[in-house]
Amino acid sequence: xxxxxxxxxxxxxxxxxxxxxxxxxxxxxxxxxxxxxxxxxxxxxxxxxxxxxxxxxxxxxxxxxxxxxxxxxxxxxxxxxxxxxxxxxxxxxxxxxxxxxxxxxxxxxxxxxxxxxxxxxxxxxxxxxxxxxxxxxxxxxxxxxxxxxxxxxxxxxxxxxxxxxxxxxxxxxxxxxxxxxxxxxxxxxxxxxxxxxxxxxxxxxxxxxxxxxxxxxxxxxxxxxxxxxxxxxxxxxxxxxxxxxxxxxxxxxxxxxxxxxxxxxxxxxxxxxxxxxxxxxxxxxxxxxxxxxxxxxxxxxxxxxxxxxxxxxxxxxxxxxxxxxxxxxxxxxxxxxxxxxxxxxxxxxxxxxxx
Length: 355
What we know:
The chain has one helix and 30 strands.
């Protein structure tokens, strides 16, 4: 009797295996959500609270407004809108309800928050120049969320440190010219600032010395504009989006001397870049998003493409629908809107380029 039961069990397992091999598996394809209420955007950010839906902040440059949406069941639900001074450019969430935006005409940062009534503006910090972007990171302490504002034009940035008493006076940093979109990284335990400098066509690094002052140096020089940079998942490499030049660039920025890898690509250039957990890299150009998995040592890439509505000023990778797959938000201008591509975005069944 026991032998017969074991035989039946083995036959069931064998049949299930053969069925799994023969029957085609359902293939999850990326789903696209367009949010036409959020148009002509120059920046934005997303946050996912521990409880409740994820929230997206969209910075409407031409409409002089900040918009907030909640994402539930792959749909965007309106939370609120606040008007700002002329030309808001970039924005970041500080926590689940508070955000900050860079405002050109304000020559500084403006804070806001989500309330039970919608969205409202709060205090303002002046930095003395027209900022194009605000970044956050632990720049003044190991567990602080500080601000880094970069100029639309000029060779100064500003750090605003957070303390228990509130925001301190801005600290000005000398920089290369027009470091539009700096990011905050770590070298060991020390904070580091990295940015592509638009007018100098330079990749730059800032380190804090023993006196607390920040000093910058060039890591690389290009013959095209390095528009944006993004860190690899492990923080060891820096992906650089060049506006033109028909190539993509990665820099081993923590090595001395730095190593630069370049791979030719068909598109003219890229203006935005973002990285997924598995180091798939999203490179964005006008109306096109190129997902790439590259072997930099042998200069080979797999590429899959997705359409965009306009010119993507910023990209954000985050799991908005909490299904375990990272999604991508494109904040676009020049006819573009906010659009969300829900993952999984990389299609394992495809080989070569996806039309």
